Amino acid sequence: MTHFINDFFPIAVAFIKSVLSSFLPSWIVDIITIVISISVFIMFATIVVMSLVYFERRVIAWIQDRVGPNRTGPEGVLQPIADVIKLFAKEDIVPTNADPIVFKLSTFVMVFSALLVYTVIPFGPGMIISDLNIGVLYAVAITGLTAVGMLMAGWGSNNKYALLGAMRAAAQVISYEIPLVFSIIGVVMITGSLSTVSIVHGQEAWGGWRWNILLQPIGFVVYFISATAELNRTPFDLMEAESEIIAGYHIEYSGVRFALFFLAEYLNAFAVACLGATLFFGGWLGPILPPYVWFIIKAYALFFIFYWLRGTLPRVRIDQLMSLAWKYLLPAAVANVVLTGVGIWIYHALTA
Amino acid sequence: MLTDNPTGNLPTLEDETEQIVMNMGPQHPSTHGVFRMILTLSGETIVKADLEMGYLHRGVEKQCEEGTFVHNVTATDRLDYLAAMSNNLAYSIASEQLAGVEVPERAWYIRTIVCELQRIASHCVAVGTFGADVGTMFTPLQYAFREREMILDMFNMICGARMTLNYVRPGGVSLDLPEEFMPACRYFVDIMPAKIDEYESLLTGNEIFTARTKGVGVLRRDRALDYAVSGPTLRGSGPAYDVRRDAPYGIYDRFDFNVITEEAGDCFSRYLVRVREMRESVKIVKQALDQLPDGPYFAPLSRNFRPAVGESFSRIESPKGELGFYMVSDGSIAPYRCKIRAPSFINLGPLREMLVGHKVADAVVILGSIDIVLGEVDR
Question: N or C: which end of chain B has fewer CB within 10 A?
Answer without folding.
Answer: N
